[in-house]
Design goal:
Number of domains: 1
Distance between the termini: 39 Å
Structural class: alpha+beta
CATH architecture: 2-Layer Sandwich
Number of strands: 5
Shape: globular
Largest sheet: 5 strands, antiparallel
Amino acid sequence: MKQKHIVPTDRERVMRKEEFIVSKTDLTGRITYGNRIFIEFSGYSEAELLGAQHNIIRHPDMPRAVFNLLWDTIAQGNEIFAYVKNMSKDGGFYWVFANVTPSYDMNGKMTGYYSVRRKPNPKAVDVVSGLYQVMLAEEQRVGAKDAIAASTKILLDTLAEKGLSYEELIFALEAS
């Protein structure tokens, strides 16, 4: 399904602490499952989501480098945790603390990805949104060809300045 152009709004939906958004995709990122909370927050019907690329909910405020890191990590068979700003069908947004892991068949062959998202720590969102704004501005400044490399450098420089790995930063923010 081709996504129509959606205009982002400043209307935020806040996840409920007791609920989780769950989705599964194939190896190309096409949605094969979404729980009722995913359907609710995305604003799409189940029929609209199934078979669509997971980036149907990608918010334009998200730096490309974050998704590059995510895809590189899970394609190598590793799980990743990340803060993600998603966009609903109506242009509203919602922040999630996402855990994405590869899925395997009975023979150990990777078949897709499984993502569980929960309500993020609001303090962490404040920090991450500022970092993402800086990364996104750099991506826009250098242009599409060099966007991911330039934005990744900002992330890596931030980690080096803090003396933390990516995982350590994410978990420190969630615990703050």
